[in-house]
Amino acid sequence: MPFISETQNDLKMKIKLLFIALLTFAVATSVVGQRKQEVTGKGKALLMSAVYPGWGGAKLNQQNSLLAIGGVFYLTLGGSYYYHHRAVSNYDKYIVADNIYDRAEYSKDWDTDLKLSKIFFASASAIWVADMIWVATLKSGSTYSTNYKYRKSRLFSYYNPQNNAPMLGLTIQF
Predict the structure, then answer these.
(1) How open is the CA angle 80-85-89, to the nearest 5 degrees?
(2) Which of 115, 117, 144, 172 has a CA that sits 20 to 30 A from residue 39's CA?
(3) Domain span at residue 105?
(4) What predicted TM-score, i.e. pTM, was given to this entire model?
(5) pLDDT 10s digits, 133-172
């Protein structure tokens, strides 16, 4: 059974990866163009970073250069998908191969592509987790005030440079 369409499948995969890269660039540039003066809360920033790593940090810090993190994340995720697809294709070739030398070559290619797929997936996962932890430790600059009839309370968060940690504060006025 000849594998004539294998180059067509590789071309389709490369087109999909190029589309993902262009979509990532389009999202990053559209977010860069939006400059809102509103204060983004920590929860919203974490949700934004869960969807596109670096987006929440860019909103909290007003630094749009952090959006490149999302591009790297999606490219590594796409690389993982690409190499996994190649590994499955090489495994299928290994199963139907008649010659022992072809089977050895397909087995080696299958093993290499599977390892690369796992490396790219682990890299994408590490980028996502590191970004989520980083956004969780950033100062949000948001304040929530609740006015009661006889008192005013305020819950706020800030960053303490001496402890090198985010802090939570509560003020109650009587």
Answers:
(1) 145
(2) 172
(3) 6-138
(4) 0.61
(5) 888 887 665 444 444 444 456 666 667 777 777 776 666 6
